Amino acid sequence: MTSLAIIGAGAAGCFAAASLREMMPGGLSIHIYEAGRKPLAKVAVTGGGHCNLTNTFQGVESLEKVYPRGFRAMKRALAAFSHDDTCRWFRERGVALKELRNGCIFPVSMDAMQIVRVLLHGVGDIPIHTGKRLTSVQACGSGGFTLRFSDGSEAGHHLVLLTIGGTRSMPGLPEGITLVPPCPSLFSLKVEDPSLRSLMGTVASDATVGIAGTRFRAGGELLVTDWGVSGPAILRLSSYAARHLSQSKYSGNLVINWISKTYEEAAEAVSSLSASRLTTSTAPEGLSRRLWTHILSRAGVRADIRNRELGAKSVRSIANALVSDTYAIAGRAPFRDEFVTAGGVGLDCIDTSTFQARAVPGLFFAGEALDIDAVTGGFNLQAAWSTARSAANGILKKL
Ligand SMILES: Cc1cc2nc3c(=O)[nH]c(=O)nc-3n(C[C@H](O)[C@H](O)[C@H](O)COP(=O)(O)OP(=O)(O)OC[C@H]3O[C@@H](n4cnc5c(N)ncnc54)[C@H](O)[C@@H]3O)c2cc1C
């Protein structure tokens, strides 16, 4: 009987195992090797313990916007196993699902452990060997692979599916596998400016953020924290600019457009404020009084004057502070709601219809171990499900 080693009992590894067990029960001998003590430890904490397992993809104009790395591969993987397939798969196994804002799909129970239980039920009697950290995969001349683990043990298998997630320490892999250096994605930014810190807790519901001197821009809700800035707009920006920020050692200037408007629109909004009222008491629409006071102070405008006293120069300064308020980035914030690794196994060495290595027949990859990662919203888990199912299909073809 052909034997398959799945390395890593995470979302991709367990889903591939469950898929293969369903597709050809008993026809393949599968062993899962997991470095940790428990399978699916990360899935258990996804979405703050609620598990945002996929997304409706409604409103996604282009896959590149949600998969900054690997969007072409994801196009193929989604054709093999889409977000609708994900929903169907979990529903058929008793998981009622609901859509929250921005197309994010969660179990109605809001309990990630329900997803863990369903996946483990799918894995069934396939053995999961825990405490087995793979250190190398070697292709044998006779076909098949020798696996070596950190405890000194070895195992031989005909086929290998590597699903070890995003990692900084990739095991030794056969020649012909290219690696894209890993770097973090999906993080908040540290900003040490005291004037911004004084806004802690403020939310700008429709901001656009960017990194000065680059094309990286992202829109959405922005949250000012005690460390700096966070929220969907910043996480998205950190994803788009993951490699750039890593190379610049998390420095540079963050440009905040607090209202996602052009300079002209902002100047027009300021000019049309009620002439007789105090500047501080008439925030333009969509801006909290606290944020508006901050903008006035950034623009160097006195707080105790009436709007009619604002000269053209002040209007220009306020408009500038509204649409290009700039702060020095002081690093990455330490908190991680969701955190993924950009980089991994390069897609140039992978046949993305099966996720098999072109130069190493029998060696497959899926999940975050690949150079595929997404913005927040359930897209990362969808990548794990889709690539795992594509690899499972590829493994079946191979038999
Ligand atoms: C806190 C947090 C919350 C998240 N929330 C969401 C969310 O709500 N929605 C979403 O879409 N995405 C979310 N993500 C991202 C998502 O969890 C990952 O993209 C997804 O789990 C990747 O699946 P994977 O199977 O590739 O890797 P993982 O789930 O990380 O599994 C990899 C497995 O391989 C094991 N392993 C690693 N190295 C070795 C080795 N050398 N030998 C053997 N085993 C090894 C690991 O222990 C692990 O069990 C979140 C991430 C984090 C950190």
Please explain how this structure is put together.
The protein is an alpha+beta fold and 399 residues long. The protein has two domains: 3-184 and 340-398, FAD/NAD(P)-binding domain (3-Layer(bba) Sandwich); 189-328, no CATH class. It is built from twelve helices and 21 strands. The chain has helices spanning 11-23, 63-66, 71-80, 83-92, 112-123, 194-197, 232-240, 242-247, 263-271, 289-298, 312-323, 379-398, and strands spanning 3-7, 29-34, 54-55, 97-99, 104-107, 128-130, 134-139, 145-149, 154-157, 159-162, 179-185, 189-190, 203-211, 217-224, 228-230, 253-257, 325-328, 340-345, 350-351, 356-357, 363-365. The strands form six sheets. It has a six-stranded antiparallel sheet with strand order 12-15-14-13-16-17. A hairpin with a 4-residue loop joins strand 4 (97-99) and strand 5 (104-107). Helix 1 (11-23) packs across helix 5 and helix 3 crosses helix 12. The longest helix has 20 residues, at 379-398. The protein is elongated. The N and C termini lie close together (10 Å). 45% of the residues are buried. The model has no long low-confidence stretch (mean pLDDT 94). The structure holds flavin-adenine dinucleotide. Flavin-adenine dinucleotide is lined by residues 7-13, 33-36, 41-43, 45-47, 51-52, 132-134, 163-165, 167, 171, 336, 338-340, 367-369, 378-381, 384.
